[in-house]
Each structure stands twice: as structure tokens, then as C-alpha cells.
Amino acid sequence: MADDSGEWTSAEARVERARGLFQSGKLEEAATQLRRALATEPDRGEWHHNLAVTLDALGRHPEALASYERAIELLPNHAHALLGAAQGSIRTGHPDQCVRYCERVSKIDSKLEPGYSMRIMALGMLNRFEEAESVYFLAQQYLSEMPLCLVEMANVLAQQGKFERSIWCYREAMSQNPKLLAVKTRLGIVFLRAGQLESAHQVLIQALRELPGDSATLLALGRTLEGLGRIIEAEEKYRRIIELEPANHAAHIRLGDIALRAGRLDEARSAYSLVITLGVTDAAVRLRLVEALSRLNLRNEAGRHLEELFGRAHIPTNSPVVEDASIALGAAGTAIDCGRPTVAIRILTASLKRHAKDERLVRRLARAQFESGDRVGGRRTTRQMLALNRNCMETLHNIALDAMTHGQLRRASAAIARGLKLQPADHGLRRIRLRIVGIRIKEYLRSTSRRIENAVKWIADRIKSIKRPISLRRS
Q1: How far apart are the first and last CA of the chain?
Q2: Which residue ranges in the chain fall short of pLDDT 70?
Q3: How far, in Å, CA of 235 to CA of 405, rounded?
Q4: Which of 80, 163, 183, 371 could share a disulfide with 194, CB 3.0–4.6 Å?
């Protein structure tokens, strides 16, 4: 077989050349040589494994996984090909497949730590926490030291909010293998999540000395400084990240959040708009942009973003708006303020499927329905609200206002009486009551005016009759 230079080269020579190219960092050329070798001898499992490793290094993970799987077909007991396939399964979003590959690895070689550590990771991703812990204890039976397992177990424990045990695992992992530098950053993040800000600060400063310029460490340190109230220093860390990685959306978001809280609305708007331009589709970021626009009185632009987010498409169950009732409440309130009550109804209806008894959501849904003109829905929701809390003043106010607006004065007065019995000084209900009094006075005067007018007309008619000639009565 002739290569590009016209020389005849065996498949083995191509594989050897690929090895040298890989070591010198010429990955594309190495992959080309391996593909040509496999075109000649396609059943060489070891070469498929080498190609998979090269493709992984190139970041072409789906192709790498296919090559690992082909290597396993040819060499079923190739432990490193199985580990590569396990890692590829994680990268391509198939943790359940990773678990199966790792189980095979441990049967072939019970001393290979990645066979346990990746299984713990995958089980954590699947929320199978008890199984993950069982694998951790299983690894202890075969391994005297297992820093990778400790790190993955720490991650799983942190995921469950078991911060103290997680901290112990991270520290033990670092004592067993001090070269695991990134673990110190993870430890700092767990301290941060646990609310131990001073400990987080100390650990992250140490991590930054060991990994200067590491964006994950700088980001965690910035968040810690925010928690400590050292906002200017936090901003410096985020700006440093952007100097190193101009497209780092997490740093832009943090700067936007600081600006939003400080009332620097134009700055917040710019930060969030840039993040969206960078391709971030996170609804939470778009909602922050909407808040900034709304506070800038750019309500048409804010409303457009809300329509794009929630106006037409189905709101997914994993949306932060659905999962977090407070976010749903804020988003719906902004939608109402921007003149999009129907959007607010969509948001609140979706969120109430998860938070059916959250009174704040029910109250705001009733308001959105009334403002959208859906009186039937609004009245139905107010009944639902009164079933949850029969003394809800906001609901009684809305019932009274809706009834008064549509001329149902008795119903309005009943709601007012009920509310003022609970809170006699309620300003809103007293204003509605005064408005009803005014309406009734007008009605009385109108009806009195009609009666007077009728009386005058009757008298005039009588006078006209008097003016007619009077004839003598016949005897």
C-alpha cells in the first residue's frame, strides 16, 4: 500500500507512525494513519482502541465511543477499552451504560480503581445514591488507597447535601494523592454550599496559588467573596476570568447579578444580553434580563422576551421556573407588569402542577386571570384560594374589586364586610367600599331624578287637561 509520499507502508508501520504522531501532538495525522491501517486489517481490536484514544484527545467523543465499542467486540476482556467506553458513555449522556461497562471491568480486574470510581459517578448521575455508596464500600475491600473513589463519593454526598461527610472524603482523597489539585477547588465549593464561607475562602486561596488562572477556582472564590460581602473583590475575580476567557458566560452572569442587585440596570442588561448572544439558552438568565428591562421601563422588549420564553412553547417540567416557586412568582409578576397576563397564566399554571398548595402562586394566578379578562377562571381560582386560606385579604380584595367592576354590588359588599371584619383598617377594601357608596348614591339620585321627572310630567298633563274648555254638566 502506498502512502501520500508514494512509499509502500505496512499497516503495522502506520500504527507505529501514529504512535509517534500522537506523542508529538499531531492528533489528526495520527488518526488518519490509524484509519488507514484499519482499512487494511479491520479486525485488530488494539488498533481500534488506539484510534478511540486519539479521537477522545481530539474531543470527538461520539466517534471515540464507537471505536471503543468496536474494540470491545474484538477484545471482550480489554479492560482499558471497557474503561474508555464507560467514560465515553458518561460524555455522551448514557450513565446507565457506563455502569454496565464498569461492572465488566471489575470482574476482569478488581484492582482497577477507575472501574469503581466511574461507576460511583454514573450512579450519582442516576440518583441511585445507595448503590453508589455500596460500590464505594466494595472498592474498600480491594484497594488500600482509592483517591478517585473518594472524590466521586464526595461528589455524590455533596449532591445529597451531606456536606460534612463530603468534606471528609475530599480531604482524605488529597491526603492519599496530593497531586489531585482540582479537588481543593471542589472542597472549597462544598464549604461554600455549606455556608462555611471563611473555610471556603481559605481553601480557595490555596487552590488558586496551586492553579493560578483556573477559571473554576476564580469563580468559586468570587462567589465566596460575594457571600462575605466583599463585592468589589468578587467583581475583580469575575473580570479576571473574562480576561482569560472572554466567552465565560458564568462570569458574565455573576457580574450581571451584582449589577442588578446594585440597581446598575444598563450594566446588568448588557451582561445578560451578551450571555444570550454567546448562545446560553438558560431561561433563568433570560428572566434576569427581563427583570432589568422591566425596571428600565422597557416593557415592550421585556414582554417580547417573555413571549419567546413562555408565550407559545410548552414549559418543560425541568424548567427552573416550574421547579422554583419563587422564580415562577417573580416571572409572572413581571409578565403582568409588562402587560402579558396570559404569559403569567401559563407560567403559574405550569408551576402549580408541582406546587399545588402554594398560596402565593394561586393568588397571583387569580390576578392574572382577572387582568386577562378571564373572569370565569379568576373566580374559580379565588374559590380555590379561599379553600386554602379563607381569610386571605388579597383574595377578598380581588373578589370585591371584580364584583364591583361588573355591577355585582351585593357580592362585592359581602367580600368587603368579611375582609374588614378581619382587618378593619384595610385601606384597599375601605376604598372599594367608598366607591360602592358613591355608585349607590348616583343610582339613587338617578332614580330620584326619574321620579321627579315623571311627577312633573304628570302635573303638566293635568294642567293641560285643566286648560280644556269646561262644559256644563247635563242634568
Answers
A1: 149
A2: 1-9, 312-313, 317-318, 458-475
A3: 51
A4: 163
Report the CATH fold assignment for 281-383.
Answer: 1.25.40
> What's the CA gap between 107 and 269, in Å, rounded?
55
pLDDT at position 462, please? 61
Q: Hey, what's the cell of 73?
A: 467486540
Q: 333 Cβ partners below 8 Å, 6+ apart?
A: 344, 364
Residue 2 DSSP SS3:
strand
Q: What is the DSSP string of 295-326?
A: HTT-HHHHHHHHIIIIISSPPPTT-HHHH-HH
CB crowding 307-337: b at 16 or more within 10 Å, else e = eebbeeeebeeebebbebbebbbbbbbbbbe
Grid cell 304628570 in the structure block, residue: 458
Q: Which cell numbers in the block locate residue 131?
A: 448503590
pLDDT at 2: 45
Cα(264)–Cα(104) distance, rounded to whole angstroms?
Answer: 56
CA separation for the pair 356, 363 (Å, rounded): 12
Neighbours of 260 (CB within 10 A): 20
| Listed residue (301, 299, 354) closest to 327, CA to CA | 354
pTM for the model stands at 0.74
pLDDT of residue 4: 47
How far is it, in rounded angstroms, from Cα 341 to Cα 352? Answer: 16
> 174-231: per-residue pLDDT in tens?
999 998 888 999 999 999 999 999 999 999 999 999 999 999 999 999 999 999 999 9
The pLDDT tens digits of the residues spanning 343-376 come to 889 888 888 888 888 899 998 998 899 889 898 9
Cβ–Cβ < 8 Å for 68, 85: yes
Instruction: Write the DSSP string, 165-187.
Output: HHHHHHHHHHHH-TT-THHHHHH
d(CA 91, CA 333): 39
Q: Are 335 and 306 in contact (CB under 8 A)?
A: yes
- Are the CB atoms for 144 and 134 separated by under 8 Å? no
Task: Write the CB contacts of 216 (distance below 8 Å, at least 6 apart in sequence).
Answer: 182, 185
Cβ atoms of 447 and 455 within 8 Å: the answer is no
